[in-house]
Specification:
The structure holds two protein chains of two kinds. A four-stranded antiparallel β-sheet of chain A has the order 2-3-7-6, with no helix packed on it. In chain A, helix 1 (7-23) packs parallel to helix 3 (68-80), helix 4 crosses helix 6 (233-246) and helix 7 packs parallel to helix 9. Chain A has helices at residues 7-23, 33-49, 68-80, 91-104, 107-118, 233-246, 250-269, 282-312, 319-341, 356-369, 374-385; strands at 124-127, 143-147, 150-158, 168-174, 185-191, 197-202, 211-222. By secondary structure, chain A is of the alpha+beta class. Chain A is 48% helix and 13% strand. The longest helix of chain A has 31 residues, at 282-312. Chain A folds into three domains: 7-119, Orthogonal Bundle (Butyryl-Coa Dehydrogenase, subunit A, domain 1), CATH 1.10.540.10; 124-236, Butyryl-CoA Dehydrogenase, subunit A, domain 2 (Beta Barrel); 246-385, Butyryl-CoA Dehydrogenase, subunit A, domain 3 (Up-down Bundle). Chain B has a domain at 180-317: Butyryl-CoA Dehydrogenase, subunit A, domain 3 (Up-down Bundle), CATH 1.20.140. Chain B has helices spanning 8-23, 39-47, 66-78, 83-94, 98-105, 179-207, 221-249, 255-281, 292-302, 309-317, and strands spanning 111-117, 120-124, 131-136, 139-144, 151-153, 162-165, 171-176, 211-212, 215-216. The longest helix of chain B is centred in the middle third of the chain and has 29 residues, at 179-207. Classes of the chains: A alpha+beta, B alpha+beta. At the A-B interface, helix 10 and helix 11 of A face strand 8, helix 7, helix 8, helix 9 and helix 10 of B. Flavin-adenine dinucleotide (FAD) sits between chains A (125-129, 134-136, 159-161, 211, 366, 369-373, 375-376, 379, 392) and B (210, 212-213, 217, 220, 222-223, 279-280, 282-283, 286). Flavin-adenine dinucleotide sits between chains A (125-129, 134-136, 159-161, 211, 366, 369-373, 375-376, 379, 392) and B (210, 212-213, 217, 220, 222-223, 279-280, 282-283, 286).
């Protein structure tokens, strides 16, 4: 064991800090709509043009080809610099669509998509879940019929985040009509501008319309867009989920420490109803300190995991434990801040920058439900890490 | 000794449930501009006498007790009724001028709720309300709002609008003593119990129909056990609510202790149940069209009224029960 950051690591951190200080956008990110997506594309493009995109992506795909550890450093510096939040419309393309195409795609698919993803030119969405297939993803019914060199898709996906901004989609469909569960599925790249796609936004309790229902009416997709093999899409989907659950929340993991520090600063200034500063209240101070310890441990878990992944080459099953730890710490922090800022916590208009703490609190349910609910993460931990007998 | 609604109490609770489900169903909050009591709702409630359940008959009320008050507000909680409904009711119990009191009881005059927040004030209630109430544990002030200079703030909870002001206009009346605060505490505790119950009902219903992996989700322990925990919270908070209401009705010396305990348990139960209800619904639980978030957001407001966690705990630490 060692905590040695090499000279290259240190030099990378210094350069990242310097560049971010000078280049983090000063303009506020628009909260919703095409303006928000354009803002995200522009920021991604700026990082790409200046040689900061895809820190741990291989050089052949336009990345920097650096280690996982340097990627950690990069996310830490993003948080420190108050850079635009990494969970934005580029999130799916960078965090799991790109890595899936890189791991399982054909040479043509890699050549076409990976640079576009890194430069912010193409945005992606994830069409896995359906109205009746969420936790139980293998119950999905959207079907694809092979017709010559195309697959013709009919059905509906639900919860598709940012479908309205996306150029492409990770689409998981049933191509063998007689198949059940995990068999007979295909993972295919769907062009979101293809005829027959209809997108209906779903409003959420965060007063946004980022998730959608997506309907497919005879949508024709070239078979050359299949990632992996026809009828063997579950394997590709598992790769996608391993990226999503493995490193998908790395930004939050590292950013939580910065956030708890900000909360402590807040507690040092805000007065409570009894006139004392919030930090003078033992209950508040102890909760903040305990959450800070959790965020410090989360950083250690992240480093341990990243170093392991650097050795083995692929993310392990520990992501589920990480997600449980991060989601509960995130919610605990939001709750204590809610007590600190008092009535202001009840003001909200859907804008993350205007009401960051209330937004984060509401987001804690999105966090503990999307990408596999906390209940399912506990199931995975019990199955895959502890080897307990399965109830499902 | 009996500690659950009985006889006429059951009839009043049922009548309130039926009336509110029709006049102000929680679903109203899915349409815009549904915050607060509007003039027509206010007069509908007034006509039925709901603002004056606990006001003596000689003063134009129904002459009932804190028990009926609590039963009514529990049903209000289930529908996420706006908090100005409570302000209206407290004003009916406080105002000494016969004319003004009658006008509040009938719903002709509207009353908002004022909360002191540092150097400023927050006003919850419709902008057509001409009066507002500011209640502390030992007195209640009624203000006339003519000439009020207030700023509208964006409200998280769609059940109530929020305005802030630096100065309150004309003071109409101050009443010393605890009764108004106590009715306020009982009313908010009851509404929070209603929210905790409504959250439990929603998830129990859903867990019986939603299927994953070939079984109803209510069959998974990860779902059924948290549901059972929600039921325990409801049971505890509701029993304590009935005790507090009855102790207040009977003028028992430890009524205050029970009110504090009832409010604290109700704060916790409403919050935890609204939280679990969203989580156990999965994705559908975070959608705007679902009622789950309405219960959470309204609980966040109510838990900050008439006894916040810190003030309740400070008093509870040294509280003693009587025989
Ligand atoms: C904001 C948001 C964004 C999303 N974005 C996307 C996206 O971009 N692409 C995409 O494909 N999907 C997306 N999702 C979908 C997400 O993955 C699902 O919502 C999630 O997997 C849960 O599925 P469900 O909503 O169908 O809930 P259900 O599966 O119906 O679950 C309901 C409840 O039952 C519990 N449960 C179910 N089965 C079990 C079991 N066996 N054991 C224990 N508990 C169980 C769940 O934990 C949950 O509490 C998003 C969801 C949200 C809320």
């Amino acid at each position: 064991m060692d905590l040695h950051f090499s000279e290259a690591d240190q030099e990378f951190r210094a350069r990242a800090r310097e560049w971010l200080t000078a280049n983090v956008p000063t303009a506020k990110r628009p909260a919703h709509g095409p303006e928000a997506a354009q803002f995200d594309r522009d920021w991604q493009r700026k990082m790409y043009d200046n040689g900061w995109a895809g820190v741990a992506w291989p050089k052949e795909y336009g990345g920097l080809g650096l280690s996982g550890l340097q990627q950690v450093i990069w996310y830490e510096e993003l948080a420190r610099a108050h850079a635009p939040h990494y969970i934005n419309t580029t999130y799916i393309s960078l965090m799991h669509a790109g890595p899936t195409v890189a791991a399982r795609g054909t040479d043509e698919q890699k050549a076409f998509h990976l640079h576009r993803i890194l430069s912010g030119e193409s945005l992606w969405c994830q069409g896995f879940s359906e109205p009746n297939a969420g936790s139980d993803l293998a119950a999905l019914k959207t079907r694809g019929v092979i017709d010559g060199d195309h697959i013709v898709v009919n059905g509906a996906k639900m919860w598709t985040t940012d479908a309205q901004h996306a150029d492409y989609q990770e689409l998981l469909i049933r191509t063998d009509p007689d198949s059940e569960r995990h068999k007979g599925l295909t993972w295919v790249i769907c062009d979101m501008k293809a005829p027959g796609i209809d997108i209906k936004p779903i409003r959420t309790m965060l007063q946004d319309e980022h998730v959608n229902l997506v309907f497919y009416d005879d949508v024709r997709i070239p078979i050359s867009n299949v990632v992996g093999e026809v009828n063997k899409g579950w394997s590709t989907a598992l790769a996608t989920l391993s990226f999503e659950r493995g490193l998908g929340f790395i930004g939050d993991q590292l950013e939580l420490y910065e956030r708890v520090c900000r909360a402590i600063e807040l507690a040092e200034t805000v007065r409570m109803e009894d006139g004392r500063r919030a930090i003078e209240d033992d209950g508040i101070a102890q909760r903040l300190a305990s959450i800070k310890a959790d965020t410090i441990a989360i950083r250690s878990m992240t480093l341990a995991d990243i170093a392991e992944t650097d050795r083995t080459g692929e993310p392990g099953p520990k992501g589920s434990m990480m997600k449980l730890m991060v989601t509960s710490t995130h919610k605990a922090l939001s709750e204590v801040v809610g007590e600190i800022i008092g009535w202001e916590f009840l003001e909200f208009n859907g804008d993350r920058s205007a009401h960051p703490w209330t937004y984060d609190y509401l987001w804690s349910w999105v966090f503990s439900i999307s990408g596999g609910t906390n209940e399912i993460q506990r199931e995975i931990t019990a199955d895959r890490i502890l080897g307990l007998p399965r109830g499902r | 000794m009996y500690l659950a609604p009985d006889g006429d109490e059951i009839e009043i609770a049922n009548a309130a449930a039926e009336f509110l489900a029709d006049a102000m169903p929680i679903e109203r909050l899915h349409s815009v501009n549904s915050a607060d009591l509007n003039a027509s709702l206010r007069s509908t409630l007034g006509e039925m006498g709901w603002f004056a359940l606990a006001v003596p008959e000689a003063k134009g009320g129904s002459g009932l007790t804190p028990v009926e008050h609590a039963l009514f507000f529990r049903e209000c909680g289930r529908q996420c009724a706006p908090v100005d409904l409570l302000a209206q009711c407290l004003a009916a119990n406080m105002i000494s001028d016969d004319g003004l009191r009658q006008s509040v009881i009938s719903g002709e005059t509207g009353v908002s709720l004022i909360i002191a927040d540092g150097d400023s004030f927050r006003i919850f209630g419709s902008s057509d309300a001409t009066h507002a109430l500011l209640v502390s544990p030992d007195k209640a002030h009624l203000y006339a709002l003519d000439g009020l200079d207030a700023e509208v703030r964006p409200a998280l909870d769609p059940a109530n609008s929020i305005r802030t002001t630096m100065a309150l206009p004309g003071l109409v009346e101050t009443v010393a003593g605890k009764p108004i605060w106590q009715l306020g505490q009982l009313g908010t505790a009851a509404m929070l119990v209603g929210i905790a119950e409504a959250s439990l009902d929603l998830i129990v219903e859903y867990a019986k129909v939603r299927e994953t992996f070939g079984r109803k989700i209510g069959a998974w322990q990860a779902v059924r056990h948290p549901c059972a925990d929600m039921a325990v919270r409801v049971e505890a908070a509701r029993s304590e609510l009935w005790y507090a209401a009855t102790a207040l009705k009977e003028g028992r010396s430890d009524a205050e202790v029970h009110l504090d305990a009832a409010k604290h348990l109700a704060n916790l139960a409403a919050h935890a149940n609204a939280d679990s209800n969203i989580q156990l619904h999965g994705g559908i639980g975070v959608t705007d069209e679902h009622n789950a978030h309405l219960l959470l957001k309204h609980a966040m407001l109510l838990s900050r009224l008439f006894g916040t966690k810190r003030s309740l705990l400070a008093r509870l630490l040294n509280a003693r029960l009587e025989d």
